[in-house]
Amino acid sequence: MSVKSEKLIILGKSGSGKDYLMRKLVEKDLKPCVKWTTRPQRKNEIQGTTYNFVKDSDFLQSINENKFLTYQTFQVTPENKESETWYYGITLQEFENSQVFIMTPGEFSKITPEMRKGCFVVYLDIDRQIRESRIFERQDKNDSIQRRLDADEIDFQDFNDYDLKITDPEFTADDVYSFMD
Description:
Layout: E1 7-12, H1 18-26, E2 36-37, E3 52-53, H2 56-64, E4 68-76, E5 84-91, H3 92-97, E6 100-102, H4 105-108, H5 113-116, E7 119-124, H6 128-137, H7 145-155, E8 164-166, H8 173-179
Parallel strand pairs: 1-6, 1-7, 2-3, 7-8
Antiparallel strand pairs: 2-5, 4-5
């Protein structure tokens, strides 16, 4: 396998296949970014592999210490619970040491033009009905499916800074990998 010099950034709405693509690219020896988050751990997620699950206080302290390249907050209302705030972020160190990333448009907007030059950006623009079905199948109860789908429509409405847009829900990682430098 050839060595890739670019960082690969994956963007897509909930249920578009971001985690799937990340796993397949990691199988091709690309080093994944492990984001920090304060949200509850989902079934089958692994601490330090899927995410770095941290307490709110640790996340806020790291913000104050300027450790993040980018971070975002989300107001969510988990099923049968009160509204709460979840934090997600990519540390500067993680950006420097990783090669494949999953980002939101808000996170991606923090990438400087100089950083962007060394990145290959893939936008997974999969049909909403397919995404909704995927989210339902994984029985994700941490957040409202409808809220996530609606929020994605707003977050991605003007997104157009990508190198490859994928609309086929049966895409393969080999296709993406072959386009990278």
